[in-house]
Automatic annotation (TrEMBL):
GO terms for MF: acyltransferase activity, transferring groups other than amino-acyl groups
PANTHER family (alphabetical): ACETYL-COA C-ACYLTRANSFERASE (PTHR43365:SF1), BLR7806 PROTEIN (PTHR43365)
UniProt protein name: Acetyl-CoA C-acetyltransferase
One Pfam family matching this protein: Thiolase_C
UniProt-annotated catalytic positions: C89 (acyl-thioester intermediate), H336 (proton acceptor), C366 (proton acceptor)
InterPro entries for the chain: Thiolase (IPR002155), Thiolase-like (IPR016039), Thiolase_C (IPR020617), Thiolase_CS (IPR020613), Thiolase_N (IPR020616)
Residues covered by the Thiolase N-terminal domain: 5-249
PROSITE patterns: THIOLASE_2
Amino acid sequence: MAEAYIVGAVRTPVGTKKGALAAVHPADLGAHVLRELVDRTGVDPSAVEDVIMGCVSQVGPQALDLARTSWLSAGLPETTPGVTIDRQCGSSQQAVHFAAQGVMSGTQDLVVASGVENMGMVPMGSNVQYAIDAGLALYGEGWVERYGLQEISQFRGAQLMCEKWGLSREDLEVYALESHRRAATALAEGRFDGQVAPIAGVTRDEGVRPDTSLEAMAGLKPLREGWALTAAVASQISVGAAAVLIASERAVADHGLTPLARIVQLSLVGDDPVYMLTAPIPATRIALKKAGLSIGDIDVTEINEAFAPVPLAWQREIGADPATVNPNGGAIALGHPLGATGAVLMTKLVHELHRTGGRYGLQTMCEGGGQANVTIVERV
């Protein structure tokens, strides 16, 4: 099988839902990182064979095949097509998988994997609001026969995880505080500077709260009475975009590209859709086994902090060293622009491996429907 290499990875700052980026059209957010990717790698854009873009709420400004409209909005060649995909929060990590698979199959040489989500302009759930407004069922008869009419939501899933793994509100808040502390340190030390492409006057991630405290978190009301969850231990509603260029060995040579990382393993697993957020655990086990690696071989992990129970339960089950997990903070501090987050995390992961000299990196995310992608890369 052919090798696939990451030869470029760039992202916007992750903005807050009411920040300056919220006014930027999603296609322009996408266009910005696509232009930056082309400029930074020096690749001939006419050689790019496809643009695969993750986006969850594909409605309104995020409709009409955002991958295609973003590429064209960037002024890039009309000859390159684009496709927009939805694997919920893992959409742009799945874009990386599809791009890498195209290269590894030998059918493509240069593919862009990307993601965009403007949750300030297009609120989460906008793409299902039609059904709600029209009084239509969100699930068909087969689903109801299998799972009944019980609540299926990320919020309930996160609370169920707290109960299953015995995670207290204090456990969650201590984790969330550390996420902000690590992100604040990363910003202060300029760790993200080389990966971020400023836009609309925003030069750095907006969601980090360096002055937050356990006392401040303790004053928040739980999402529901009796729950351990509060807004402080959940990912932030955000705006952002990211793009990654995947290349074959031939393309690396022909276009004079510099590999940043080699794709080692691509795995995808389904788990209980009611718990929804647990799939990174079995997916990681499978990915490590297929790669012939142990968790001790992984120098940096990026696991999406949809809610604090997700990385906490994952760490307990997998046995990862907490110091290697989200070393620069995660979505609790930096935000979670849904369809963009997979590519954002991959951008962070590759750059952190180069900053620290680590060899192997692992990325995983919980996804709606009880799914998870795992990507293992090796620094080049």
